[in-house]
Specification:
The chain is α/β, with parallel strands linked by helices. The chain has 2 domains: 92 residues, Elongation Factor Tu (Ef-tu), domain 3 (Beta Barrel), CATH 2.40.30; 125 residues, Nucleotide-binding domain of ferredoxin-NADP reductase (FNR) module (Rossmann fold). The chain is built from 5 helices and 12 strands. The strands form 2 sheets. Strands 4-3-6-1-2-5 form a 6-stranded antiparallel beta sheet. The chain has a 6-stranded parallel beta sheet with strand order 10-9-8-7-11-12, sandwiched between helices. Helix 3 links the parallel strand 8 and strand 9. The longest helix is centred in the middle third of the chain and has 14 residues. It starts with a strand and ends with a strand.
Length: 234
């Protein structure tokens, strides 16, 4: 059951040139499932509210973190003015973009800020050493747009069953990636044993729709093996 409370800003982290993470001290036990989301309400006239994925893992005690791409919206502008020590209202947890449990191999198809709940799930799996085989195929325009790049590099070193594949519209010299977009061929090539995996799709709605179509129509995967989260934070 979701709970509403006032949280204090503990730390603000710049993740990319246009992306920030906000870590919140909620003053009590942190209880949510990896991959879930929360609502954030900022004081103002009018009051500003958004639903945002939790980017931290339940294993990371002491704070709850959400991550937001900063745009020209009123909410983003207000968020940019936050400082450590400020208070805001949250309600959590919501959502079913979560793990079934250990034993099922999974694949993530993501783009841009859609990586936030996937970071939570991957971190939880690594910290708990669940043994789940995970492949992340992550699409961005360019190297500077990649969020949590260092986090996933650390997780890969600690957890051999995690494979990260970057797909860039504008490849960077010396950086290992696939040029272009995620398509059926990329999935076949990079996601081993893909017919037996559960796929988690998160990104802008058009991308999620396109990935869903590729999986069901081009690769003939069952709809019950696909979990989606249309991310509206763009």
């Amino acid at each position: 059951m979701a709970q509403e409370l006032t949280a204090r800003v503990k730390e603000i982290i710049q993740r990319a040139y246009n992306v920030k993470s906000v870590r919140l001290d909620i003053g009590g036990k942190i209880d949510f499932k990896a991959g879930q989301f929360l609502s954030v309400t900022l004081a103002g006239d009018p009051v500003l509210k958004r639903y945002l994925s939790i980017s931290s893992s339940p294993t990371e005690q002491g704070y709850v973190e959400f991550t937001k791409k900063l745009t020209n919206s009123d909410f983003s502008k207000a968020l940019s003015q936050l400082n450590p020590g400020d208070s805001l209202k949250i309600e959590y947890p919501f959502g079913k973009f979560t793990l079934d449990g250990p034993g099922t191999d999974i694949a993530f198809l993501s783009g841009g800020i859609g990586i936030t709940p996937i970071r939570s799930i991957a971190k939880y799996t690594v910290d708990k050493n669940l043994g789940t085989d995970m492949v992340l195929v992550y699409a961005n325009h360019s190297l500077k747009d990649i969020i949590f790049k260092e986090d996933f590099e650390v997780m890969q070193k600690a957890y051999p069953k995690l494979k990260v594949v970057h797909v860039l519209g504008k490849p960077a010299a010396g950086f290992q990636c696939i040029s272009g977009r995620i398509n059926a061929q990329v999935i076949k090539q990079e996601v081993g044993n893909y017919p037996r995996r559960k796929f988690y799709l998160c990104g802008p709605p058009q991308m999620v729709e396109a990935m869903n179509k590729i999986l069901t129509e081009d690769l003939n995967l069952a709809k019950e093996n696909i979990v989606t989260e249309n991310f509206q934070g763009y």
